């Protein structure tokens, strides 16, 4: 078998119909690259062919499976399931994994959550968790299993042994302008999620100015690919396409988002982040067999919050993974960077919009996120958003509190945040929080 023949088959010939690659061809090209047996220029050509010609659900499922088995797979045998996880495609102020896991776990579902770090304008779950003093995300497989058994969920990062093909292929996609390929995004996401031991998955596919998928058509294409490929792999899945035109909730930062997580689990969180957390929980409960309908799932999710059980599990996880719940609650609402400015309304009227991408990029300057993977983050940096779309304002009203890693970062971020805020004379219509739901039975 030759890499050139596989590239030609995926590239196609103008007067011939494309034939899908078979398992042996996909195994050959991926595994040969991981072993260093084919050069980078050939894998680059193959990635570009996939970018332009796409893949069927079946091809993408095979690619995902091959990537999955390029390294270790978490062994959760012996633990009682069901195992259900959620994946977000990334946004600004998107802390939903943090309250979601204990809410779902409180209803008897195991949530093996392998998460990532901030990159570009989007936040990272691991960075938020590590803002909690002492919290560890580099768990061994034994710890991961043990913590899931004790609290129903655990939070860890990807190890070098898990899905090495994804790490290598992603690096190559980054430098060959093929990151946006839907089947390649799908295989990257699914290979990691299946490697952690999930049997069912709910995808939160962000759409809008602060998302990687800017249009509903692009977001729907990714959502359909994720759900269809999971189905081809024998996994239950569904996707919610959700609004990321504006930051989610009131906090965009690392420790700030831990605070909002606690608020949500207390039943005192912002309306949008609370509603979306509960909606995602309801769908996870359906896939885990604990609820038959979305309405029933919502009732169970709300009960986990109102009873205090979800917050109790969250604090237990904090303790298990190296943090101190008493220290966390002592810092709650008081821990802030000393480098600080206020952003005030420039005119009377209404907030027409707050651009999530601009807020996210300001966050990168402040120290919330990264431009490259080696950049450090500042746990106490971020933006507290006090006014939202549709709110009336008077000139001089406080709109945001801005916290940075140093005074220069705050000064550099203020113009971006001013530019993020648009005003209008009339109250704008509020947007939907959930644009569309993609279910396997509809594909």
Characterization of this structure:
The chain is of the alpha/beta class and 443 residues long. Helix content is 45%, strand content 16%. It has 17 helices and 13 strands. The chain has helices spanning 3-11, 23-34, 40-53, 57-68, 97-105, 125-130, 141-151, 164-175, 182-195, 216-232, 255-265, 271-287, 294-306, 309-320, 325-331, 356-366, 407-420; strands at 84-88, 111-115, 153-157, 200-207, 236-243, 251-253, 339-344, 349-354, 382-385, 392-393, 398-404, 421-424, 434-439. The strands form four sheets. It has a four-stranded mixed beta sheet, sandwiched between helices. Strands 6-9-11-7 form a four-stranded antiparallel beta sheet. It has a three-stranded antiparallel beta sheet with strand order 10-8-12. Helix 10 (216-232) links the parallel strand 4 and strand 5 (236-243). The longest helix is centred in the middle third of the chain and has 17 residues, at 216-232. The relative contact order is 0.14.
- Helix- and strand-based class? alpha/beta
| Oligomeric form | single chain
Strand tally: 13
Q: What is the percentage of strand-forming residues? A: 15-25%
Per DSSP, the total helix count is 17
Neighbour order of strands in the largest sheet: 1-4-5-13
* First and last CA, distance: 34 Å
Q: Determine the mean pLDDT.
A: 94
Output the keywords:
443 residues; alpha/beta; 4-stranded mixed sheet; 13 strands; 16% strand
